[in-house]
Write a structure and sequence with these properties.
Structural class of chain B: mainly alpha
Number of helices of chain B: 20
Chains: A mainly alpha (338), B mainly alpha (379), C alpha/beta (257)
Helix content of chain B: over 70%
Order of helices and strands of chain B: HHHHHHHHEHEEHHHHEHHHHHHH
Oligomer: heterotrimer
Radius of gyration of chain B: 23 Å
Number of strands of chain C: 10
CATH architecture of the largest domain in chain C: 3-Layer(aba) Sandwich
Largest sheet of chain C: 6 strands, mixed
Strand order of the largest sheet of chain C: 6-7-8-3-9-10
Distance between the termini of chain B: 27 Å
Chain lengths: 338, 379, 257
């Protein structure tokens, strides 16, 4: 029982990441009609925002190391520590959460630039061409990152205060066996909050209503005299911000490297397909579902019955869903179905 | 011009001549060495096959590298178990890749468009992940499948005394290192190109193009389209298997990284860059990408400095700084940018570029044709 | 009448098809006699195109059967129905836009010769004179010869319609279904199409034609069925239909050219 619950928890943070990426992917597909293979790269850019923030906060000056007396030794001391002392150290420690303030404007900008500069020219072109050009974009973005940050993963730790594990079991009176890293718990809650805000935004604002109407039936919306295309930039920016937030917060769990976007892209595409292309709740549901199933599949008990299942479970589910119910779990009838 | 292309034997003669003389005409640009030439041939076969599926039917597979990987594994197993002769290995590679593509194609082709792409992608990733994990007894996991001295090699052991060290691949007593390897692969490329030429010009090829144009109409015209699509899929899977087999023949090892989806992406890239749906385009794409990969990735700052040495020092340093992100390690950046530019401005690839240039050049002639003729008569 | 052979070629028997709450076809019964030109008229939304879609296997009816030449074809694949001898001209021209006009006609000719699946990757297309010859012959009849090497997608809508007709005729179908073959055509083109339809009447093939233009209907039809709200409300010769007060009131509005 405890083992099952632990796997359930394990699936939640990964599921949260899948859900956030898939949410943007399906939003862009549903409104703009664009299949964006570069979306994983946006997730990666978000993660590197956290890296950059950490680098900025730890910008250091060379200070003579007083503890070494027999020759002139220097050590690097971050400016923040020189200026603010203890407070400075704490700010550095909190670089990942602080980076969210960088992520939002930066990703909005990136989203705006990409939509205006590239994506908008591909609304009328075939899905194959959209896939190809965004695939090229993904390569370019990841190579830019590789050129500037190298090929190795960069450790980006979470604040010290949440470094350990939470004793989740004792909260529910189930003993001390159920421990779970604080940060992953935070990630899950964070992803729920972002999803909630995104849904509230789409549900309760006029803008969101128009976007949702456009996802249902773009022609009708255009006929009502609403210029839906003008809102596309914002939608794309929103998707980019969500992906970026997902990436930045994931940095402590998975030290960012340049190809993390590609790895997540394939998985989140499958999440979108399983949830139903263009369905927002579907993306969220499928994200968590696949995250949890993946973690169940990696249990030793399961692996001993079905060896290798943990490696292929997600793809297997995608294949089954596509064959049995091509519109996905929550997709509307007739969308991309044939 | 049209007449020339109509005669397939003439086309094949010129094509073979061009391919077989590559070591000569490519050496001035530094591409005349066997290693790179073999790559041209092997990826050429891969791309020709991929083009039969994507170019003719429009079905974009993102999992073709899986067939190439399977072909490699099959060939290496043939080296390990049977003989170091490459002929059975290659036949084995083609058959295994063919069977594998029947299964994957049959399932994936139940959907079209982006769903087809994702299904093929999912299968390729499954193969890749399994090759790294549970299938380790067959694939040797991360290390990759390699030859060992202790391998049985049943057929070889009947005829040849085992040598010291690892045996080498051969085509009957012909060794396959260096230029021999190139000519061996070139022979397969020429055969592969010929088959593709015939397919392009056959009723089968026309039907595939019609499916790309309007599949629904095809069904109301009395064709069961699925078997045609599956045939195209399996044929292109067999080409990929052949390419994988040749990879193992020239360098007898096989690793799972050959099956990763980015490797599938690479063949898509090469085909698009050259010109999807054209006969020669994919080969041009292969040539350009593999050539520049070789050249660009070898360039470093010293080479750049030397290249701009005639310029004033400030400008020299500026140019070096500007171009260095695009070469060496950054070659993929150039590739990605090049690819985006092609998809944006030249969706038909380099072949479309040629067409446009040709039309541009022919324009003044076609307009003044009569004038020119009458002027000539006056002489 | 004396036009047809007296044999039934197509029989629609109690076909019902609903979309959501909408009954597009409501217990539809229709018999088409071999060798006739049978026009189906009716107001918009009467279910005319749905009926054709059911006949060619594009839609499966909820209840009822369609019988072609004594064989039940409901539930069969579109290509099987086509191979049995049913061809259709669509309301919006369904052609292979990316191919040449000649190739567009060669493909159905190949379908007629090779059947639903034949793998012939090594035979050369240009050397198959039988296929090309038949395609050219049909194109000549429809006066499309000079456009033969043109890109089909670049043609005018009228020419696309004629091309689609050529694609159906080259298969020598036993039953030809035409969905508004003259919609959007100029008077001149309409008359030309009427001539063509009359010409191919002599071939002995059965034609079912859906048409709004009464001039076309009364020029070519041997029999007329009036479809409204998913079932037939009247049927007869053109003269009977012209004189039928129910039809005049319900549909023709009393004014016939």
């Amino acid at each position: 029982m405890d083992a099952l619950l632990l796997q359930l928890l394990n699936g939640l943070d990964k599921g949260g990441a899948y859900a956030l990426i898939a949410l943007g992917l399906t939003l862009v597909f549903g409104t703009l009609g664009v299949v964006n293979f570069g979306h994983g790269a946006l997730f990666m850019l978000g993660a590197f925002c956290a890296v950059v923030m950490q680098k900025i906060l730890t910008l250091s000056e060379k200070v003579k190391d007083e503890s070494v007396t027999f020759f002139d030794a220097y050590k690097e001391v971050p400016y923040l520590e020189t200026w603010f002392g203890e407070t400075g150290t704490m700010i550095i420690d909190w670089s990942v959460p602080i980076s969210l303030f960088l992520v939002i404007p930066f990703m909005m900008l990136v989203g705006w630039a990409l939509e205006r500069g590239l994506i908008k020219h591909f609304y009328k072109r075939t899905h194959a061409e959209q896939i190809l050009v965004t695939f090229g974009l993904a390569i370019v973005l990841q190579e830019i990152i590789k050129a500037n940050f190298g090929a190795n993963p960069i450790p980006t730790p979470a604040p010290d205060i949440v470094a350990g594990s939470a004793n989740v079991g004792s909260w529910f009176g189930m003993g001390d066996n159920l421990v779970y890293p604080w940060w992953r718990l935070i990630y899950f809650i964070f992803s729920m909050i972002v999803i909630f805000i995104a849904f509230a935004f789409l549900k309760f604002t006029t803008f969101g209503m128009v976007v949702r109407a456009g996802m249902q039936d773009r022609d009708t919306v255009s006929m009502l005299g609403i210029n839906i295309e003008r809102r596309f930039t914002i939608v794309f920016g929103l998707a980019a911000v969500i992906a970026g937030l997902a990436g930045a917060m994931y940095a402590p769990t998975l030290p960012p490297d340049y190809h993390m976007g590609m790895d997540f892209l394939v998985l989140s595409f499958i999440v979108v397909v399983v949830g139903g292309m263009g369905s927002l709740p579907g993306a969220v549901l499928a994200g968590f579902l696949l995250g949890i199933l993946q973690s169940f599949a990696s249990m030793n008990e399961v692996k001993s019955i079905l060896p290798g299942i943990d490696q292929i479970i997600i793809y297997l589910i995608a294949v089954v869903v596509l064959l049995v119910r091509p519109r996905g779990l929550m997709g509307r009838k007739g969308v991309m179905e044939d | 011009m049209k007449k020339f292309f109509a005669n397939q034997w003439l086309v094949m003669l010129v094509f073979s001549a061009v391919i077989l003389t590559m070591p000569i005409w490519l050496s001035p640009i530094g591409a005349g060495y066997p290693d790179l030439l073999q790559k041209f041939m092997i990826f050429g076969i891969f791309a020709i096959g991929f083009n039969i599926l994507f170019g003719l039917t429009g079905y974009l597979s993102f999992g073709h590298a899986a067939f190439l990987g399977v072909g490699s594994y099959a060939a290496v197993w043939s080296f390990k178990l049977l003989t170091m002769n490459v002929l059975p290995a290659i036949i084995f590679a083609i058959i295994v890749a063919g069977l594998f593509s029947v299964v994957i194609g049959y399932i994936s082709l139940r959907r079209s468009g982006i769903y087809f792409s994702i299904l093929t992608l999912a299968f390729a990733q499954m193969s890749y992940n399994l090759a790294y994990s549970v299938l380790t007894p067959v694939t040797n996991g991360e290390t990759g499948l390699q030859l060992e001295r202790a391998d049985p090699r049943i057929i070889d052991s009947l005829f040849v005394e085992p040598t010291e060290g690892l045996p080498l691949t051969n085509f009957f007593s012909l060794s396959l290192s260096g230029y021999e390897g190139f000519y061996f692969c070139a022979a397969f490329l020429i055969i592969g190109f010929f088959i593709s030429l015939r397919i392009f010009r056959s009723p089968f090829g026309l039907k595939l193009r019609a499916i790309k144009s309007n599949q629904t109409r095809m069904q109301y015209t009395g064709f069961s389209t699925k078997p045609y699509l599956l045939s195209a899929f399996v044929i292109s899977g067999m080409y990929a298997g052949l390419a994988g087999g040749l990879m193992a023949a020239t360098d007898p090892l096989a690793g799972a990284e050959r099956m990763q989806w980015t490797a599938s992406g690479e063949v898509v890239l090469m085909t698009i860059l050259g010109g999807v749906g054209t006969l020669i385009g994919p080969l041009l794409g292969v040539g350009i990408i593999k050539y520049f990969e070789n050249i660009f990735s070898a360039i470093n700052e010293n080479v750049l400095m030397a290249a701009y040495s005639g310029l004033p020092e400030g400008l020299q340093h500026f140019l070096v700084t500007v171009s260095s992100p695009f070469v060496g390690e950054g070659w993929h950046l150039t590739l990605g940018l090049m690819f985006m530019l092609v998809v944006i401005f030249l969706p038909g690839g380099i072949m479309e570029g040629f067409d446009r240039i040709k039309r541009l050049l022919m324009k003044p002639f076609s307009r003044n044709k009569d004038a020119v003729e009458s002027a000539e008569e006056g002489h | 009448m004396g036009v047809g052979t007296g044999n039934t070629v197509l029989k629609v028997d109690g076909v019902t098809k609903t979309f959501g709450g909408l009954r597009a076809l409501d217990d539809l019964n229709l018999t088409i006699e071999e060798g006739t030109v049978h026009a189906i008229i009716g107001p918009n939304g009467a279910g005319k195109s749905t009926m054709l879609n059911v006949c060619i296997g594009q839609l499966k009816p909820d209840t009822g059967t369609v019988t072609f030449d004594g064989e039940v074809i409901t539930g069969k694949q579109p290509f099987e129905i086509n191979q049995a001898g049913v061809s259709r001209v669509f309301q919006t021209p369904a052609i292979f836009e990316d191919l040449s006009v000649l190739q567009n006609v060669m493909i159905p000719a190949i379908a007629h010769r090779d059947g639903k699946f034949k793998l012939n990757p090594f035979s050369i297309l240009e050397k198959q004179d039988d296929i090309e010859g038949r395609a050219v012959e049909i194109l000549e009849r429809l006066r499309l010869t000079e456009l033969m090497d043109k890109h089909a997608g670049s043609m005018s809508r009228g020419n696309k319609r004629r091309l689609e007709l050529a694609m159906c005729l080259v298969q020598q179908p036993r039953l030809l279904l035409l969905d508004e073959p003259t919609a959007g055509m100029s008077r001149h083109d309409t008359n030309r199409t009427i001539d063509i339809l009359k010409q191919i009447k002599e071939g002995g093939m059965t034609k079912v034609i859906i048409e709004h233009d009464m001039h076309v209907v009364f020029s070519v039809a041997d029999r007329i069925s009036v479809l409204a709200r998913g079932h037939i409300i009247a049927e007869g010769t053109p003269d009977e239909i012209k004189g039928n007060p129910v039809v005049q009131e319900a549909y023709l509005g009393g004014s016939v050219e």
